[in-house]
From TrEMBL:
Sorted UniProt keywords: ATP-binding, Helicase, Hydrolase, Isomerase, Nucleotide-binding
Signal sequence annotation: none
Residues that hold ATP according to the record: 148-155
Cross-referenced PROSITE patterns: UVRD_HELICASE_ATP_BIND
Key word Transmembrane helix present: no
Biological processes per GO annotation: recombinational repair
Organism, scientific name: Pseudoalteromonas amylolytica
The protein's Enzyme Commission number: 5.6.2.4
Top-rank EC class of the record's enzyme: isomerase
Protein known as: DNA 3'-5' helicase
Record-stated family: Belongs to the helicase family. UvrD subfamily.
GO MF annotations, alphabetized: 3'-5' DNA helicase activity; ATP binding; ATP hydrolysis activity; DNA binding
Pfam families: UvrD-helicase (PF00580), UvrD_C (PF13361)
Catalytic activity as recorded in UniProt: Couples ATP hydrolysis with the unwinding of duplex DNA by translocating in the 3'-5' direction; ATP + H2O = ADP + phosphate + H(+)
């Protein structure tokens, strides 16, 4: 029996006195067995009462390693008490745990709580939650990424999980924060979850943090709230700057190299012209992106790559910041940056233990930093992220898909699960669209089934000579079937019917509710039918193949190596809007390259 140096001396002394090794073991167990029993009891209580998260698993492994050295490094010769024997048996079991044992234990835990709270899961939403949705509510790992494809009920999970944390006495509503990408989504979460929960956008969260630290609500700049004023500010600033001989050349080169527009010789006239609107709009976008680049500490890298273009932008940035300072106001970018600084400086007491993020695939690096600051604040926190990398379509506004596809590299160890049933569109649309988007090997694989059972072709390709004529024929057929909602979708507004044409169509087909929108605007929308138009190749077609804008490109998250990766996801979004049928208008000439990949037989009109 090895009890360390002092133990061996004691053994020798007792042996000379005629005491046996068995007697020594009995003496040792009588005085110390309760320690093992107590330690194993704590481990068992932890395993019963908490989900076996990665951090909890670390603690279990550390405890087992210590107990193993103390209790399994010597041979037991006597018959112990049943309580001690059971504790020793449990220790040996835990010592031998492999990955499959851990997975099996977690699965049993999930099933136990799914059964225990069956009534809650059956009634918390209008329809009973699916098994995958229940699992998403029960798992409480340090970080949990839920992949939720189009129409799989992600909002139901966000709401149900928040309520379940309270219902199961894990948290109070005040300890739960739900973050949404846009204000409408935040309002919907608030309406469905209840007033007691904090449901915010990232900008609203930033305002809350700043107000709490500074003791008053920060003033938001008029340039932030009024797009026309922001446009005029940039326009007026350019007029003044271009009076300086040294700036004229910088601006001309900016127009040519960044915006691919050749300015007129008279810059004052050009700045007021319609041709310059695109340049000014681009600069207003760069103002926001620039401030985020500075907050992330990346300006030096950008300056080394695009110094000449940056020289044109910097004076406008300086004027813009001076305007904000004069107002005593902040903009949207300041909301995030200041909130991060206050949280990291421990000037804001983070009250939330459970942070839930919707539309995670739309997360930008600066928002990710705010999220990390929340997670690193004092006390234990849990991150629950809901997203779908297949629907990541906002790189132009700063979204970084790798925050989802490479979640662990950014946020640490993670449990990844997926919702496996869509309630929106039929199985053949699901199969074709999933295969199409996953042609990009960097997309995360998901296996989803449809809950809908539609008959007949649900993805229908029409080869068209005139889109307007074919559209009227399709709408006439749908109108005869009765009331329905129809989405007319295209990559750009110019590919869709004009407002007057839409009014005319609505007047002709009164049984239909017809809406026209771009692929981007259609995200999150659904209808019985969708008609996808403008599917032709070219500079103004789809997939969009616009010239690179070097300065903006350097400031945005790195472009993916897979060709037209985001345009592919955008088409997936369009394909998954309809509950019953999708019509694809294929031009007779120069058809979009994506159509051939769908492998659908085309009708000719």
């Amino acid at each position: 029996m090895k009890l360390g140096a002092q133990g061996r001396v004691l053994t020798v002394t007792l042996a000379h006195s005629g005491c046996t090794n068995d007697a020594l073991q009995r003496y040792w167990l009588n005085h110390h067995a309760h320690r093992l029993i107590k330690a194993i009891g704590k481990v068992e209580d932890s395993l019963k009462n908490q989900y076996l998260s990665e951090s909890n698993l670390d603690l279990v492994k550390q405890t087992v390693a210590v107990l193993e050295r103390q209790w399994l490094s010597w041979t037991l010769h006597i018959t112990p008490t049943s309580e001690f024997e059971q504790a020793l048996y449990t220790l040996k079991e835990l010592q031998q745990w492999q990955a499959n044992d851990i997975a099996a234990f977690r699965a049993k835990y999930i099933q136990y709580y799914a059964n225990k709270y069956q009534h809650f899961f059956d009634s918390v939403e209008a329809q009973p939650l699916t098994a995958a949705q229940r699992q998403a509510c029960i798992i409480r790992d340090d970080s949990h990424l839920l992949l939720a494809g189009a129409g799989t009920g992600k909002t139901s999970v966000m709401v149900s999980r928040a309520k379940f944390l309270v219902y199961s006495d894990v948290a109070t509503p005040e300890q739960v924060l739900l973050l949404a990408y846009g204000s409408e989504a935040a309002k919907e979460l608030k309406q469905r979850a209840g007033e007691s929960f904090e449901c915010l956008t990232f900008h609203a969260l930033g305002m809350l943090v700043i107000a709490a630290v500074e003791g008053k609500q920060p003033q938001l700049s008029e340039l932030t709230n009024d797009a026309k004023k922001r446009f005029r500010f940039v326009q007026d600033t350019l007029q003044v700057l271009c009076l300086q001989p040294g700036y004229k050349g910088l601006f001309e080169q900016f127009c040519i190299k960044e915006c691919h527009i050749q300015p007129n010789l008279d810059l004052a006239e050009f700045i007021r012209s319609a041709r310059c609107k695109a340049v000014i709009a681009h600069i207003t976008s760069l103002l926001s992106v620039y401030k985020n680049v500075v907050a992330l500490g990346q300006l030096t890298r950008i300056a080394s790559q695009q110094s000449d273009l940056l020289k044109c932008l910097t004076p406008i940035i300086d004027e813009y910041q001076s305007y904000l300072d004069t107002e005593g106001a902040i903009d949207f970018e300041d909301m995030i940056a200041k909130a991060i600084a206050y949280i990291e400086a421990d000037r804001f007491n983070v009250p939330w233990q459970h942070i839930m993020v919707d539309e995670f695939q739309d997360l930008s690096p600066i928002r990710a930093e705010l999220l990390k600051a929340l997670m690193k604040a004092k006390n234990k926190r849990y991150l629950f992220a809901v997203g779908d990398d297949w629907q990541s379509i906002y790189r132009f506004s700063g979204a970084d898909i790798t925050l989802t596809t490479q979640f662990e590299a950014h946020f640490g160890r993670v449990t990844i699960t997926a919702l496996d049933k869509t309630f929106r569109y039929p199985q053949d649309v699901l199969d074709i669209s999933s295969r199409f988007v996953c042609a990009n090997p960097h997309q995360l694989k998901k296996y989803v089934k449809s809950a809908r059972t539609e008959t007949g072709p649900t993805l229908q390709m029409e080869t068209v000579e005139c889109e307007a004529n074919t559209l009227e024929k399709v709408l006439a057929q749908l109108n005869d079937k009765g009331e329905a909602c129809v989405l007319l979708l295209a990559r750009f507004h110019k590919m869709l019917p004009s407002r007057d044409e839409l009014v005319d169509l609505q007047g002709k087909f009164k049984a239909l509710k017809i809406r026209a929108m771009t692929f981007h605007a259609a995200k999150g929308k659904e209808a019985e039918y969708a008609v996808i138009m403008g599917l032709y190749e070219g500079h103004t077609g789809f997939p969009a193949n616009r010239p690179i804008q070097p300065l903006m490109e350097a400031m945005l998250p790195a472009r993916e190596t897979f060709s037209f990766a985001e345009e592919r996801r955008l088409f997936y979004v369009a394909l998954t809007r309809a509950k019953r049928r999708v019509y694809l208008f294929k031009p007779q000439d120069n058809a979009c390259r994506f159509l051939a990949e769908l492998e659908i037989k085309s009708n000719t009109h």
